[in-house]
Write a structure and sequence with these properties.
The chain is 4% helix and 50% strand. The chain is mostly beta strands and 522 residues long.
Amino acid sequence: MIEILYCGSSSACFEIKSGQPFTCGDAYTVLVDGVKREEGENNVFSLYGLRPAVKYAVTVRFDSGEEEKLEIVTKPETCCVNIKDFGAVGDGVHEDTAAIQAAVNFLPADGRILFPEGTYLISPVALKSHITLELCEGAVLLGSPERERYPIIPAVAVDSISGQELPLTGFEGLEQNTYQSLLQASYAENITIVGKGTMDGNGAGGDWWKDFHSFPAARPSVLFFNRCKHVTLHGVTIANGPSWHIHPFFSEDFSMLDCFVTAPKVSPNTDGIDPESCDCVRIIGCRFSVGDDCIAIKAGKLDMAKKYQKPADHHVIRNCRMEFGHGAVTLGSELSAGIRNLSVTDCCFYATDRGLRIKTRRGRGKDSLITHVLFDNIQMNKVLTPVVINMWYNCCDPDRYTEYVWSRKPLAVDDRTPHLGVFAFRNMECVDAEVAACYIDGLPESPIDEVVLENIRVTFAENAKPAIPAMENFAKERCRLGFYLDNVRKIRIRQVRMSGVEGEKLIADHYEDIEMENFEVE
């Protein structure tokens, strides 16, 4: 079965429901009105160069002989203008910011700006509602390397009459002044960015990756959306961000489909996408290869969570491939408003430090509830530690090394105490792990409610090297550690096989109930 994920005025995206992670295992050819347009084997594929308000017959022919037919009708639009008609040069030398901003400002609602092949050197551009940017193959929006060209946006503006606050920006769970991102929108809706082109933040071109802790404001993203609705990224490549590549912030209905996010493995804090306090996020058919977490779902630190009480809710991650980076899919550590209703399915992880990573700590607060989280049908290769839940995370906060963070004694449960609910890890194949198969470390005063580990296969690499499975104070290096669970109320382990484990297959402590069925070590 093939599902239509998105159909705009000039492009469409489809998903093959193969039941296999990322690729369907059967090559196919895509025909549009009987003419061959694409071929591939990934579960998600796209069509470009379509015309607005036109009906198309799409046929997908598999090498196995199967065939499926669909019909799509592209959306109408008011106009499509070429950015060069507004004076953009696209030679990578002349700055094209003014031309692009003029096109955005004067385009009517439901219009499209077309970027033909070329390199468009730009400083930050502000987007508006009801607009589509299409980056053709070979089109690159290249960020200026000069930090002085990036205005500093205040975290909160104040209405000069009423005194009411207007939230504008933030970073790492705090409302803080931030350099304007390359493409940025606030309080806007119906924004679409599509095509085979690239948005390149040019992080290495300036000083974004050097001594950034001394900057007067937080570094920008390539794309930042503050309190926006109905945003779609389709097909584009986002590269070399000054910090996080994509940052949806208190936004709703955000879709990222068949995109590629890339930065050098050594680039600092270049997360792929960090949806923060967002509702209804879809990340489907995307690839990531970055210098930090590929996907990091966040919900603010304590002060911001108390102020807005906006959890991360209804997130779907499916048919994605993550390479390198610290974590493939991460929750936290800024999650004080809570994260709930998350599913991560049909994904492939390659050579990330951790696969499925949850990180929190004392101080995130009583509303920091993470629950109803499902990870299902995941393939991992050369992932050092496939599953990590860490309630002792010791990074990014001034008090990170204090006794309050590291004390193993049960502390009083108060307004600062986080809580983790129910987690299910199912149908996972993990090859060439090195550090630990599963490392779950809860708080003694706030144990994790329940962890289900079912139908999982883990094999360790012969040349495995010791490393730290979770970032916490006084952490010990581990190597070929089996299942480690501490401070989990209910543990369910079913249909699990491991090979290459050193020591006991299971180390479990401070639990109330444990159930094991067919838990084997070869």
